Amino acid sequence: MLRRRKVNLKVIKELDGFPKVPDTYVKQSVVGGTFSVLSFCLMVYVAFAETQYYLDSRLQFKFEPDNDSIDAKLKVNIDITVAMPCSRVGADILDSTNQNLMGFGTLEEEDTWWELSPDQRSHFDSLKYMNSYLREEYHALHELLWKSNQLTFSSEMPKRTSYPNHTPDACRIYGSLDVNKVAGNFHVTAGKSLSLPRGHVHISAFMSEHDYNFTHRINRFSFGEPSPGVIHPLEGDEKVADHNMMLYQYFVEVVPTDVRSLLRTYQTYQYSVKDHQRPVDHHKGSHGIPGIFFKYDMSALKVKVTQQRDSVFRFLVKLCATVGGVFVTNGLLNSIVQVIWYLVTCKFLTREDLRDDNQKVTVSSSVAKEQSQNSVDLLAEMPSPTVDVQISSQLQ
What is the DSSP string of 270-329? Predict the structure, then answer.
């Protein structure tokens, strides 16, 4: 019995929780079609923009106390060229713990020429221009730089292809040192460094004032490992001394920075710098030691950079709300424009309404006729009574 029972579609239609709008209530118009096309295009654009905003992360900057101990190490990367032969200059570093270069590592010294080759000059000018531009526009580009995941300028100085005829007149000092995370002083001055129990001295007794020339070029000066988004202000700096006994001072403030991106977590360092230069003239009261001095100090606060992104559930909710809002707004604007158009053209009562009424009346009358034609009069269709007449004849 159950197999033979047929499914009644009428019962299923009555169970529909979303009844359909009758076709007589739906009217198509040019205005409605135009709004439909515009709303569809707007929905596609909004969905694309919302998806792009979800994929694009945001950066959050916070300040925290730097709790690293004094035993923690700080890596200093140096590449500087001084316009004096290596035999006449010496580089050394001394920090607040009275430790010098001998306890932190060694720096390489290379005799070179102050004048750069065309390729080297083009490279250094590009570094100088880019670093200057980034320092000026950092507040507008900081998020782009941090999220680029690329180093600002990581290529090395190209090698020389041709060498000058004269002997080298400059010294390139480069390398990395692991120093203590305390205030220190890295300096390049005349004479080689000699370590003493309570410090160090630079022996320059066999040099005259005319041998001094502290014109220098900074190719690299950074802290920590190379990391994207960090700008090193001193890189690309070039100072030409107009006096033999010149004193250059750079006051550097190092800020530890912890970066937590979506893929990895690493630690780097940023720094700000102020520079000062003056000629040393003891007769005029300007005392000091001519040379190049980098006085750095550690900040008590560190910057914590966190890369954030909305959750998938929040993205879907915002996307649905945006598309739904566009749909509702489209319907509201469509109704307002339709009303305004009818008011302007005075089409509230037109013949179309009368035609609809006439059509309804005609349809109803035709239905009545069909019903009257299809109706059957039982009295008229009843068969007439039949009389069975029998005639019998008797034959005599």
Answer: EEEEEEEEEE-BGGGTB-S--EEEEEEEE-SEEEEEEEE---HHHHHHHHHHHHHHHHHH
Please write the tens of the pLDDT for every residue from 226-243.
887 788 889 889 999 888
CA 157 to chain CA centroid, nearest Å: 29
Write down the pTM of the prediction.
0.65
Per 3-state DSSP, the chain is made up of helix, strand and coil in percentages (nearest 5) of: 35, 30, 35
Q: Dump pLDDT digits (tens) for 37-56.
A: 888 888 888 888 888 888 77
Q: Which two tokens stand for residue 20?
A: 């359909």
Shortest CA distance to 59 belongs to which of 135, 147, 134, 139?
147
Give the chain's radius of gyration (CA, Å).
Answer: 46
Q: Report residue 396 CA to chain centroid gap.
A: 133
Which residue's entry shows tokens 């670093």? 131
Residues 6+ apart with CB under 8 A from 130: 152, 153, 236
